[in-house]
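Please describe what follows:
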Amino acid sequence: MRTKNILPILFILIIAIATASAGTENTNDDSLILLKTGYIDTDNTDMTIQDISTISTDTTEGYYIVQFTGPVKDIWKQEMAYAGASIQGYVPNNAFIFMMTNEVKDQIGSFEFVKWVGEYRPSYKYDPQLTQTNSIQTSSTDVDTENIYFVLLFSSDDYESTASSIELLGGNILSGSEDILKVQVTTDIIPEIAAMTSVSWIEEYVQPTISNDIAADIINATTTHETYGLNGSGQIIAVADSGLDTGVNDSSMHADIRGRIVSIIQTYADGSSADYNGHGTHVAGSVLGNGSLSDGQYSGIAPEARLVFQALGDNAGSSLIYVPSDLKDLFQEAYNEGAKIHTNSWGGASNGAYTTLSLQVDQFVWEHPDMLILFAAGNSGVDPNEDGVIDEYSIDYPATAKNCLTVGASENERGDTFSIGTYSTWGLKWPAYYPASPIYEDYMADDSQGIAAFSSRGPTQDGRIKPDVVAPGTFIISTRSSLGSATGWGIVDDNYLYMGGTSMATPITAGSAALIRQYYTDVENLTSPSAALLKATIINGAMNITPGQYGTGATQEINGIPDNSSGWGRVDIENSIYPQYPDVIEYFDNPQQLNLSDSWNVSYNVTEGSDTLKATLVWTDHYNLSESAEKALINDLDLIIVAPDDTYYGNNGPDTVNNVEGIELADPTPGTYTIKVNGTAVQIGPQNFSLVIYSTFDINEYPSNGSYTTNGSTAVSLNLSHPYGINQSTINMTIDSSEVIHSLESITGGYKVENVTAQPYIEGYHNVSVTALTNQSEEISYDWQFYASVEDNIITIDGLAENSVLQEETFEINISNNKYCDLWYNIDNGNNSSIETGFSFNTTLNLTEGQYNLTVFAEDITGYVNSTTVNFTVFTTQPTIDLPDTGTIYYHPDDNFSLNGTAGIATNVSVYINGNLTNGSWPVSNGVFNLTNIPLSNGTNTVNVTSIFNNSETDHLSSNTTIYLSLGETFDTTGYDEVTFNLQGLATNVSDPAFNFNITGTPSNPGNISAAVVRGNEPGNGSVLTGSAIDIRVINESDPEYSYQFGRNVSLTLGYDHILVNDTDKLAVAWYDPDEGMWIPFRSTVNITAHTVTTNITHLSIYAPVEDNTAPVISDLENSRTSSSITLSWNGSDDTDHVEVWKNGVFLNNVSDQQISDTGLSASTSYSYGLRPIDFTGNIGNWTNTTVATTASTTTSSSGGGGGGGGGGGSSGEEYENIGFKDVLTVYAGKDDIVNFDFDDEKNDIDYVRYLSLKNAGKISTTIEILKDTSALVDDPVPGKVYRNLNIWVGKTGYAIEANIQDPIIGFRVSKEWIQNNNIDVDTIALNRYSDDTWGKLSTEQSGSDDEYIYFEASTPGFSPFAITADEPDVIEDDEAEQVADISDASTETEDTDTTTSDESGKLPALSGIVTIAILAVTCVLIRKQQN
């Protein structure tokens, strides 16, 4: 590190600090010289101190700061030149840098107008922060970081010598032109470069980077296109950005841009102008894309403008932008191609600093005042202090330039449910930048009144207002580069994508500027509108979006206009050039050149009713500013409005910082207003300016807009005026869309237009429109309406008469009036309805039963309120029957019933039995009726109850409520095995006696049976009832749903009506399953002569004779297979008699069960099976087909559920050869019934299966398969000594589960002979169940014995393969064997037998106990050992 200059540098810094120590509170103090490095207070700094000069001789030229006694006059500058001082750049306040000798310096110091002279020292030429480091160097080997800087020269004549000197110091010259060098040097030599006399300023170079369907509507571009025909035609816009699609102006170019390209300039020479990033193509499309690939939906703002494109990106598609060292070269290229608008969506971070590139922008606009240059404000907005507010001072360079239009980003309107994947809230997307509420949870594009969080905020470092305006910049749709790989913020399709940033807001504003420029050239006929005029017009018409999206309070986003977030507001093209008359704009483009103290003014007469007066002043400020100056403004103009009540200054000033000033007066006081522009401090004149004025003319329409008149023949008039005057011949007046004759009276700026009608106006609103052209052919129009109040306020209600009875709860009424009114109503003086405005409206009322009053109100335009009331009744409720329930059965001798329920507001009820009225009508008391002794007929009775409301001698009847009751009989069955019943109420032609029971062999006679004819639903599917449905039951007073179980098959014979029968072969007795809502036919026999049909039943329920024409079905076909066999299982209809099974087209067998095993098959061979069910009455079902292949080995394979395990029941998959005996029993399973299957065949060791039924399951079959050997459905034999292998299946597959049955138990028996022959310990006998691929021993208890068997009972969780086993017997001595022989005696001993006398019979239990104790002891030791 170099150290030789440390002392001189420190000395210079001390001088600089000493001279710049003045306070900074008032930068307008004329005693201050404002430098970026600090302020010099010339009132407190002796000029003699400055005599210690670094300039060696009196004749050596150097650079000095000269401060004048006030704003610099041209005569003073002339005298300075005569003395030999050459003027350089301006320094505020009232100072310039001059080149001169010491001798000249001494001379001018004596001039009266010179206040102070001081050397322009090296320490003034750079920000001290450039040479500051954050650490102390500790070794001579430390190396300073090399950075890139701009070195600016006072004169281009010194370019070569200065460059050589920098290279001698070790610097590297990267580029440069004329008076600017771009260099790469270490920070330690910056003071040495600053010491060169030729150098005026040094600043760090920051590499620039790239910083609309809905957006067009937000800024009112769509209206401007469609209403006013402005589309950018005739305008040339330059875009400088990454690249443009393919980079070639031919058919490969994006279709939305193709054909309107003036030139593509490869400004950054990397060999291509193509867009590998995608940014430049998107920007260009936002400016002027025509949307040809989207049917115009995604067109840009100026879709007929032409394009000059300057490619600044690289072929790598990076975000870096490579601009010339002198931006004037960039702008000149485009200007030479005819572009008058230049948009730039790039910049570098500068925290709001005014940089060399900013100055270059200002210089080019000063030298080319008809080119508007736009820059993106930048995307540096963050909230590092987490206060929920974006911090200030983040504007990028060169957007800090005075003469450009700087654009920030507002939010788009995509809502909070936008579906693009990248759409989120600011905080979720960038939590490090936006960690606090309300920004964190704010969606990125849901409120066009808000500012995008990333948008850089002002002010600039010298306090100027930036951005100037904002425009939508989030999730903007525009053109997509065909070469770019980036996806932006989301892809729309191959031609368009979403992007976001101030980069997107800026081209939208540039397109807006093109439409405004077209307005001035095509409508106002200006040949070359200035950039200042375009800028003033955009700013003047911008929409004030205060307070922003977060409301007021600590996190308020926008604090009025102008503001550091939104500038002067959001771009609004229509409001900028076509405000709605009587709002008008007037512009002045360079009306007068101003020098120091010059003034220009214009006056307006503001009348009563004007709501706004707004003026915006913009001037293109001079660029000749010393880069070291702290404040950028050179020429200070002031906007002033002198009003009748006060004087107003632009920006609430006087403002000495900005070159944009605005004044907006709301509700101005009537009188004369003078708008002035003063040349307050024109340092380098003369100064041009542009002014746009927005004002409201008092049109004094009569009758006034929205008012009413009671004069049906009123005159209608309007004062039509404009700053440009009105073309009399173009005035047109219409009333209610018809042209009317009008008179004209001259007034200032126009005419009073009046019509007096010959035909009186009818009641209602009347629309007036007056149109005209100004004297500059600008179309203006004004529309308004007034109300003619000439009728009386009379209310009419259609659809609801006084004291009417409505028998519907929802009905429509129409409320109308002769006048246009606010109409509303209430019911029973309750809450008012919403107000409907008009002559009439329809409304729908939805009311429950009751008596009501409706009051309607009508307030007319005069404020008079009328009302009327209608009383009415809503009667709709059917009677509700509480008792009896439909389906209730009464039995003789109780042949009448009581009826009670509710009937709402009814006055009476009537009861009809089988269509016959009983007892006239019955009174209703307080909505309740209680009726008694209503007679019933034998059989089924249809009971209809109707409510009656008697109103003014007129009966209003409700619809019927219907229940069905039956009257039956109870028959004594005591002592009978066969009983025949004669039942009353049978259907016509049904044989009588109606039914017969044969209960021979049942365990008990119920003693009595009750029967009644009930209403039966037709079975459908071709089947019909052929006789009365009969409810047969044993009365159980404690359980109305009780279903008597016989426990055995019982014969039931029913009579049928032969007239209803088509095919007697299809007759059967059917049971009605209430859960399934269907009839289930049983296997039956028919007596054609007696007209009866007989079947076997197991329980009492509802039965009827049916003609069964419904074919059976097969479902849930499954298979299991081995290498030599295939077993098929299925579920079938309840009335299936058998299933035909065919194999490979050849009949195989008829199967009455729900399975078949086909054995003796070849391994690894496919077999095709067809199954067809046939029911009890011969109905044939459809074929069900399947193909199954045997396995290659002997292992068993299964498909589907199989037959066992898991607690379910279902079809067996057991091999036929292994089944020794099969027993099947079917009983009825009702809800909450104890279902008991009692088996009595001697070949079946299962005594019973019993469980609690949790649902009405209907007929359930239990199948017992006594096996010859281990079940084919298990993998391993059961452990222990096997007494019997067996399978038990209950119901169909999926029935025997916890949801349907509870507490299932199995009763079984074991032969005493087997026990004795095998020396079995009875206590070890148990029932085992196979489930989940393993055997488990069930909880088994002994329940009794007889001479041959000991009986047991076991609890089981389900049904599957079982085995009855015992432990293998121990080897025992002969005497012990003898004791075993007496086991039957021991088993019958009573519990109170004296244990001391039971030695002979109790040794086996004692031995068993000893063994048990030993086993327990060993077990405890093992457990303890394991624990240890």
Notes: The radius of gyration is 53 Å. The first strand starts at residue 32 and ends at 35.
